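Fig. S4 source data, part A: sequence.
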Amino acid sequence: MGSPGSRHIAPSILREPRRTVARAGDFRVVVWDERLHGRTEDDGKTYTYWDSAADLIGLLDHLGVRQAALVGHSQGGFLSMRAALLAPERVKALVLIDTTSVAWPLEALAQMRGVSEGFRGAGPEAVAPVLLGMLLGQPAIHDQWLAKWRAQPREGSPTRCRY
């Protein structure tokens, strides 16, 4: 498990292709896959948002980026805030979208744990009725997302993150 100040980067993050999705003058937008998201490999270890933040700083090092504006949505915001705390000199700006900086209440953590255990134990059908409506709201796209969830290995679901 990592801690503030750790500079280890998950190897699969460097192997995975990062996409430069926009470039204008001296600016470029790079999209990357956090641990257990996208096409990163599952090393089977528990990780924290601090580990992911250290991965992000390591990725900046790997790309030769001295300073960056970080944009984080939801969980990406959690780890972007931690990256800014780990290496404030590396963060030129921080844009947070639909995220929070407060600790999760114990009840919310228990609910998240229940969802992850339900997914691992019984698969997406066990959690889909609650999550699809809560996260997506649009019934027309529920089947599309449920199919994606079914394609995920239960043991490799992003449930080992220690909040």
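Fig. S4 source data, part B ends here. Helices lie at 11-15, 49-63, 75-86, 106-122, 124-136, 142-150.
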